[in-house]
Amino acid sequence: MSHSSGSSSRKRGRPSSKSGPTNPLKPPFFKSSPFSDFGSYMTEKNRKLRDQFETDASSSSHGANPAITDGGDSQGIFKGVAIFVDGFTVPSSQELKNYMLKHGGKFVNYFSRHTVSHIICSNLPDSKRKNLRAFSHGLPVVKPDWIVDSIASNTLLSWVPYQLVEHAITETSKQLKLSAFFSEKGISRSHHQGILIQNETSLPDKCKGESTELTLSGADNFSQEKSLESKHIDTNDELKDVKSESEEDCSTSYVAGQSSDHLNRPHSTLTDPNFVENYFKYSRLHFIGTWRNRYRKRFSNFLSGTGSKNNNPNNNTENLRRIVIHIDMDCFFVSVVIRNFPELLDKPVAVCHSNNPKGTAEISSANYPARSYGIKAGMFVRDAKARCPHLTIFPYDFSSYEEVADQFYSILHKHCEKVQAVSCDEAFLEVSLSLNDNPENIAEIIRKEIFETTRCSASAGIGENMLLARLATKSAKPNGQCFIPPDKVNEYLDKLPISALPGVGYNVEEKLRMKEVETCGQLRTISKDILQKDLGSKMGDMLWNYCRGIDHSAVEAVQETKSIGAEVNWGVRFKDSKDSENFLMNLCKEVSLRLHGCGVQGRTITLKVKVRKKGAGEPVKYMGCGDCETISRSLTVPGSINDVASLHRIAKQTFASFHLDVKEVRGVGLKLSRLELANPSHKGIEEGRLELLFSSATRKGKQPVEQSCSTNHSREDAPSGAHPSSSSAVSQGRNISELPPLSHIDLDVVRNLPSEIFLEMNGLYKGELRKILESHKEKVYNSGSIEKKDCRQQDQETSMRMQCELEPSEASCSKSNYCESDLMPGSLSQVDFLILENLPDEVRADILKQLPPHRVENQLPESSKSSLSLGSHSKWFDMLRVRNCLLSEFLLSSATFLTPNINPSCEEWDAMVVNLCEFVKEYVSQKIESDIEELYNCFRLLKRLSTNSSLLLELYDRTLPFLQASVGEHYGGKLHL
Amino acid sequence: MDRKNQSPQGQTAKVVVEFLEVAINCIVFLKGFYPSRAFERRRYMNVVVNKARHPQLANYIHSSIFALLPYIQKGLVERVVVIFYGQDQVPLEKFVFKLTIDQSYQSSVSEAELEFALRAFLVKLNAAGPIAKPLPSGANWEITAYFRELPSQENEGEQAKLWVPTDTKQWMQPSEITPIKSMDSNPLKVQLYMEHPTVTEQKV
């Protein structure tokens, strides 16, 4: 179609005789006036084409109806579908247009994201194929067969199987499978049908808008009908089990380019409360990662016995040479599965989660016949099937893998004392041979035995060191062995591409390619200095050695686990900090479980966070991490930890210290290093304590309203100019740690001060103090709004969570209570405290008794000291928690009253002690980071006071271990009390 | 990390660094490590403090602490410790300044308030003599900073490169802590405490 922008509307399109009369919407002025710009021209053109199409549709369906026997039904099959035909298609775009006309669909001439629901094309140029998202805008790109077949079957078929490129699936289908995967394993096949049905039934009813929404988010370069398991495998590429001794980093990042938002999708950290747990539960890589622990447990007797056996031969003969054999099972995952099917031995077989020929589950392992068809691990099943239609696909069989791995290692340990396990199917052996022995013999024997026992073949590489052995294995495969004798090393390495060397990744290869170095032979011409300069000292050194066949690493029977951790880089989407906190909690649980599993504790906690790079869109991979920046920070605590609570606290702190927008977080990893063996007795105590603290904290969180209501108006903080009063609303337990010193001042204390000191303080505060004392009532009234503000500020500063919705109620509480009590005549607030405090105990008690009981009740928090002597412990406890003063000051000022006249054996007393302990512990955990001076003072005071109060003695004894543990954790020492 | 609002942190860091210099001077004086005539009485934050007169000593304290400025600003420095150790390089006593600067603190810092809080340190420090233990002959001391993470080499100035890894030995057991003073005034938290080896360790 040719357009000339200057021409009038009449010239374009069909003769107006067809469109004109049935086009009431057309504004008349367009007919005469030329278009102001190209945009308006196109708008008008599109509108007109649409109108024409609609006219045609109505007329053609009229004409077509008699011809089609099942008239009414046929009309609607493409309802809600708007196609855009791109390029050459069979049937042609004109025919497709007619089909759409007949069956209720729409045909769009000019592509627009908003009007088109499907793109129809038969071929795509390579550039578009590579950058499909840019081309399709997330819409499904479907073959024309879809339309033809749909018409043939007279229903709207799911377009999923008709996609042109293996890229897009509907979000719904993916979601279904994902959630299904997490609820039940291994039923993915039935789901495919389920989804198909769902699409069929739902699509026709849906308007266009909805169908675009369905499809736009689904586009994903990876998968069509990606089954859950497969999804999981490739997510696990990102999942790193850090339970390995090497700390290499192999983070995968994906090119970003997706615009749709994933916030509302199921299966992510957002929706699945057990996300972390499930994430690790069904993972092949996790199996491999955790396999080492099994191995260690099972073969620990071999490992420990190694040392003694090894010494003898070494001492006896000097004539020995050290030979390293690298044994690797051939396509382990496949051969284990097919050992029971001998007829499949020379047929192509692959292992994969799903056997759907159209699926894009990824093949995890393929045997050699299959590899000859070009099938590789990581390939989609569908591609594999396309290359080799008779490919047999098996699911995983983890129990068999374990069995075979155990057999494999039994054999190795039988033949050799020094075995270094690399993976479940791969190991290094170090054997000492006399010069005459042929090392190939022993490899032959081992391989033969492996085959006889496990019915799976293994390959062996033999060399002087681990590097050569490993390289030799590559040439030995499959089911063979290769020996690189010392004199052939250089010859062998000369032609070896550098990428074959372990540790050479894409980056290094690329850097070296710039220097036109592609083989080890060429690499050898570069001096060590230059290598180290270009690639870093470690890498340069390593490469320099490797290309000469030098490898100093020794075969080690037992490899110490250096770090334990867990990392999730897939499906991480947080809506708010609550989500992230939950997620951290779960991650900590997972890590703690692993630590417990290995019986170790760690001292260095490393938190790694992947954050969406600025400007990076949604990742290509669904729920993937996309283009990310990685931030990590480690914290070394003086005492090793492995319990959830400590981990969580530290992780939370560290996480908060990044000051991230949680919405941008795409991955979180937690790792512990500097591992030590756990000391069970110590651990038990600490855990118990922390658990107690934890539970108490959560319980308190749940009932703050009642608390604040029951506490009346006990708080009269001194507001200063810079720091407005933060009073009862703020003082919700833990939140007070961040308060500025000025507001710590407790008026109760101030009033009790000798007049000289008061005057001095008043001077320091520039007279503010006196004003406050006199007018604290107004302050409390006014503080309502300030409190809230202050709260928020503190919330941010401390990153401690406080239920914001509670603030108003609390504020109003304090207000209303204040009025209530203050309006009461004869209340204690009218008694001069200075005098009251200075009275002897008995006299004061008498005075208090003189007051009517309800007055006393109301004034309890205010006159905190009297409350104790009256025996209202729970009130006292509540009051303490709400008060925003320093405990030590309180203890000091109320020292004489802390002699309860209750029998130490009664229940009330017990409850009180428990309450107090809880309070003190909370106080400790809140102050531990910011103010050990205060804690020190408190406990010194407690200690001093405990001599004449059994209550305080009990309190001191019970809380001291907690204090010391907390101090130990934060400061690596004990308070010297 | 948010670096946009460097001013409150930078401002705070400057005050902290200055304060640390004074406080360390005081500690060294307090320990009687050098003869008292090597110090002169000065007034800082309206408190009488002792400042080293010997240019080398003064310079050591000044330059090492000021080299920390960029790190303190970024919140990388966790503790600044003045360690006194005997001849065998085993610490006998540590004065620990634990610093926390809230990196997310946005509003401006009231310097007067910071000074008010820090003054209390100096007063208490001057009175902390009795807690300190007498040093044996042949003792030595150093300033050590504990970093939250090792600073990267590239983007720091010349001054920052003055710092070297310490080879002070660690105590085998958790130390005994005696707090001297703590303050908590946004965005700065400082805690000063002393660490001594436990009694059992001293015998070993």
TrEMBL record, chain A:
Its main location: nucleus. Mg(2+) binds at D328, D425, E426. Residues 719-731 have a biased composition (Low complexity). One of its GO terms (molecular function) is DNA-directed DNA polymerase activity. Its EC number is 2.7.7.-. It holds the Pfam family IMS_C. It comes from the Eukaryota. Binds 2 magnesium ions. One of its GO terms (cellular component) is nucleus. Residues 73-164 form the BRCT domain. GO terms for biological process: DNA repair; error-free translesion synthesis; error-prone translesion synthesis. Transmembrane segments: none annotated. Residues 324-505 form the UmuC domain. It is found in: Nucleus. Residues 226-245 have a biased composition (Basic and acidic residues). Keywords: DNA damage, DNA repair, DNA synthesis, DNA-binding, Magnesium, Metal-binding, Nucleotidyltransferase, Nucleus, Transferase. Residues 251-267 have a biased composition (Polar residues). Residues 1-37, 51-71, 218-267, 696-734 are annotated as: Disordered. Its cofactor is Mg(2+). Gene3D superfamilies: 3.30.70.270, 3.40.1170.60, 5' to 3' exonuclease, C-terminal subdomain, 6.10.250.1490, BRCT domain, DNA polymerase, Y-family, little finger domain. Deoxycytidyl transferase involved in DNA repair. Transfers a dCMP residue from dCTP to the 3'-end of a DNA primer in a template-dependent reaction. May assist in the first step in the bypass of abasic lesions by the insertion of a nucleotide opposite the lesion. Required for normal induction of mutations by physical and chemical agents. Belongs to the DNA polymerase type-Y family. NCBIfam families: PRK02406.1. This is DNA repair protein REV1. The lineage of its organism: Eukaryota, Viridiplantae, Streptophyta, Embryophyta, Tracheophyta.
UniProtKB/TrEMBL annotation, chain B:
The chain crosses the membrane at residues 15-34. Keywords: DNA damage, Membrane, Nucleus, Transmembrane, Transmembrane helix. SUPFAM superfamilies: The spindle assembly checkpoint protein mad2. It comes from the Eukaryota. GO terms for biological process: DNA damage response. It is found in: Nucleus. The keyword Metal-binding does not apply. It holds the Pfam family HORMA. One of its GO terms (cellular component) is nucleus. Residues 10-194 form the HORMA domain. The keyword Nucleus applies. Its main location: nucleus. Signal peptide: none annotated. This is HORMA domain-containing protein.
